# Entry
Amino acid sequence: MDTLMGKKIGFLGCGNMSVVLMSSMIQSGAVDPQQVWASNRSPRKLENAVQSLGIQKAANNDELLEKCDIIVIAVKPQDYHEAIEPIASQFEEDHIIVSLAAGISLDSMKRLFFKSSNLIRVMPNTPVKIGKGVLGLTCAHSAQHLLPLMENLFSGGGYIVKVEEGEPFEAVTVGAGSGVGFVFELMLYWQEWLEEHGLSREEARQVTVQTFLGASELALQSSSLSLDELQRKVVSKKGVTAAGLDSMRELEIERAIRYSFEKAVLRDRDLGKS
Ligand SMILES: NC(=O)c1ccc[n+]([C@@H]2O[C@H](COP(=O)([O-])OP(=O)(O)OC[C@H]3O[C@@H](n4cnc5c(N)ncnc54)[C@H](OP(=O)(O)O)[C@@H]3O)[C@@H](O)[C@H]2O)c1
# Structure
């Protein structure tokens, strides 16, 4: 059951995330471009993906369902119901349905895809593009047996974390899916401050990127040390870093970040309701 051989994977919606996932699946060798199909509302993005990735084009969503075994629903949450309702009855019992949409719960999926019990949610982030992403994975109880297949399909994209639906999946959605956006926000502050203090735009960008990359790589390669311990190695008593960190703590940066994460969780829930 966990082999992808002979299986056809259909992307319903051929936007940014589909292209990123399709490339990672093809580049990692998990699937051949001949196994990958896509449909899209407007023609241009689909044509581009067909040209650049060598995937197969479905004339419409109906054809995608006819041709494919695994259907990846990759439309925006706002477009979800409009896309699925007209074709809901054409999903077969043995279709494997993978939803990327933020906010759309497994319960909502059960109502929409009433024939199939092979329901899975995946929450990727954009570094999947370079094989360094995080992909949150959760599934209906009836689809547990499909997890190895999903790992085979998505593991080229990066680190897969299997979690329960509800709070843990929301946390991965915000911490990793949106998290990339939050990290870039911090990187922009770094870069701007460095520029204001005399570095060129390019130097400021490089220093920022290398600092984030270096810290992340160091943490990755020092798995026996906690993040706390790694941080302590940078801080000497009454030193430069300590002065900055004291100030960060006084200004309650953690509170601001937690508050922002909670706001993002609320938006994730709203998307599911709308
Ligand atoms: N981007 C991320 O970082 C990220 C991360 C995690 C999860 N996701 C999830 O991934 C999903 C896709 O996001 P995205 O950023 O890739 O959005 P996107 O670039 O806007 O792609 C969505 C695509 O769906 C197509 N579409 C809309 N309605 C359709 C329909 N009825 N039939 C066929 N195609 C239809 C759109 O076609 P048009 O060309 O006509 O607009 C568009 O190309 C979302 O649910 C999002 O929550 C995204």
The CA atoms of residues 43 and 239 lie 58 Å apart. Strands lie at 9-12, 36-39, 56-57, 70-73, 96-99, 119-124, 133-139, 158-162. The chain has a mean pLDDT of 95. The chain has two domains: 9-163, 173-273.
